[in-house]
Design brief:
Blueprint (H helix, E strand, L loop, with lengths): L4 E4 L4 E4 L29 H11 L8 E8 L19 H19 L3 E7 L4 E6 L32 E7 L4 E8 L12 H10 L5 H8 L10 H16 L5 H17 L1
Antiparallel strand pairs: 1-2, 3-7, 4-5, 5-6, 6-7
């Protein structure tokens, strides 16, 4: 064997030293470059992921949402395209803003709000948890006297086992995402403007939630109302219309009576 040759553990034969890449430790790899070529990275489709969220988000869902995905960074519906790693500079602030935009989309489509827990490294990994998760409760002792404390609507806490990790890589232009979630009834936002509630109740029986959402987009006070909030309140309003009494038989009788009265008018 020539002194400039190295034995390739995959080929099972000696090859020229130049055919072996130098690794991060400064040593030659044990396999030649014939075996070190990386396979083309397979990426997932963002719209397919969104459809998974929509399909999963159904009342009384028993299946746990659990999946790992890799997306092309520049194909995502938020502004990752302009983010690049410059010499001696990392766009941390811009990356944080873009990540918030991405989380807003996941919240709108999936219907659940995530709380940011931590960012590891230079924006290499972001960790989130559902704001209703029992693990998200922060211990807090009020300093006010009991008689001065106000009773307010509190968010229901559930053991939803939530975990959302997102890792954007500006060098490889990819984004990894892993999610684990147990379904539960989402928190009903009590800050939905009265004009929106009125509009949903007025048009709930004659329009779909998507049609109502388009109408709501024209209302300035409703700029922060999400698609899921509209869908949830629309379903709630329709349930009350279709079942005005807790007794199914009595409810059906009332609806038949209302229908008969409307036809006679």
């Amino acid at each position: 064997m020539d002194s400039q040759d190295i034995f390739c553990s995959s080929c099972r034969r000696s090859r020229a030293v130049d055919e072996f890449h130098v690794n991060k430790q400064g040593k030659r790899n044990k396999t030649c470059q014939r075996h070190s070529k990386k396979r083309p990275l397979e990426v997932d489709d963002w719209e397919n992921f969104i459809q998974v969220l929509r399909n999963w988000n159904e009342p009384n869902q028993s299946e746990i949402l659990d999946g790992t995905y890799t997306f092309a960074l520049d194909a995502l519906p938020v502004n990752f395209r302009s983010l690049r790693v410059q010499e001696n500079a990392f766009p941390r602030s811009e990356l944080n803003t873009t990540m918030r935009d991405l989380i807003d989309i996941i919240r709108d489509e999936g219907g659940f709000r995530f709380t940011h827990l931590a960012t590891n490294g230079a924006g290499s990994s972001y960790t989130y948890r559902c704001c209703q998760d029992v693990m998200s409760i922060k211990k807090y002792e009020s300093t006010l006297e009991p008689e001065k404390r106000r009773d307010g609507k509190r968010m229901d806490r559930v053991p939803c086992e939530s975990r959302l990790r997102i890792g954007p890589c500006l060098q490889s232009r990819t984004l990894s995402l892993s999610i684990h979630y147990r379904w539960h009834t989402p928190y009903e936002d009590n800050h939905v403007p009265p004009i929106v509630l009125e509009l949903i109740n007025e048009r709930g029986s004659s329009k779909t939630s998507s049609e109502i959402l388009r109408d709501i987009r024209a209302v300035p006070e409703a700029k922060n109302v999400t698609r899921h909030q509209v869908y949830y309140l629309w379903k709630k309003a329709n349930a009350e219309i279709r079942q005005p009494d807790s007794d199914p038989f009595a409810s059906a009788t009332m609806l038949l009576s209302e229908d008969s009265n409307s036809q006679n008018q």
